[in-house]
C-alpha cells in the first residue's frame, strides 16, 4: 500500500460511493435506524440530514395525524424531517389520549408535560368521542 493511502477495508463506504448511492442504501433503513445511523459519524450525518428524500419516504408511514397538516407544514417550508418528527409526536399524543391515558385528569394543572400539542379539529373530535364513550 502506498503511504498515506487508506486501507480499502477501513474506508467508510459513504466516502467511496457517490452520495446518491449512499442515500439509496440509507433509504432501506427504518426511521429509528436512520436516526441512529446519523449519529455514527459526521459524514453519515451530513448525508442523512441533507437528504429530504430519506425523510419524505417515511413521513407517510408514521401514522401522520392528518394529510392536511402534512401539506400545511410543507407549504410553510418545513423540511420532510421536521414534518416527520412533528407528526410522529402528534401521533404519539393522539394515541395516548385515545387509549384513555389522561381520562382521570381533573384540571389543566394535572396534564403531564408533552401530552398536549396542536391537533386539528377532527383529531380532538375523535379524542372527545372516545372520552364520552368511556
TrEMBL record:
UniProt keyword list: Ubl conjugation pathway
F-box domain mapped to chain residues: 11-58
Functional pathway: Protein modification; protein ubiquitination
InterPro entries: F-box-like_dom_sf, F-box_dom
Gene3D superfamilies assigned: 1.20.1280.50
Presence of the UniProt keyword Cell cycle in the record: no
Any one Gene Ontology cellular component term annotated for this protein: SCF ubiquitin ligase complex
A biological-process GO annotation: protein ubiquitination
Name assigned to this protein: F-box domain-containing protein
Organism whose genome encodes this protein: Onychostoma macrolepis
Amino acid at each position: 500500500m502506498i503511504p498515506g493511502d487508506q486501507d480499502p477495508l477501513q474506508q467508510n463506504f459513504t466516502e467511496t460511493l457517490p452520495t446518491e448511492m449512499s442515500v439509496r442504501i440509507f433509504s432501506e433503513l427504518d426511521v429509528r435506524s436512520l436516526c441512529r445511523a446519523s449519529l455514527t459519524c459526521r459524514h453519515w450525518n451530513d448525508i442523512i440530514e441533507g437528504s429530504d428524500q430519506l425523510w419524505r419516504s417515511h413521513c407517510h408511514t408514521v401514522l401522520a395525524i392528518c394529510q392536511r397538516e402534512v401539506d400545511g407544514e410543507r407549504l410553510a417550508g418545513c423540511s420532510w424531517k421536521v414534518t416527520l418528527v412533528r407528526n410522529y409526536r402528534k401521533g404519539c399524543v393522539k394515541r395516548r389520549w385515545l387509549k384513555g391515558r389522561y381520562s382521570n385528569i381533573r384540571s389543566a394543572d394535572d396534564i403531564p408535560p408533552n401530552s398536549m400539542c396542536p391537533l386539528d379539529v377532527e383529531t380532538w373530535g375523535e379524542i372527545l368521542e372516545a372520552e364520552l364513550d368511556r
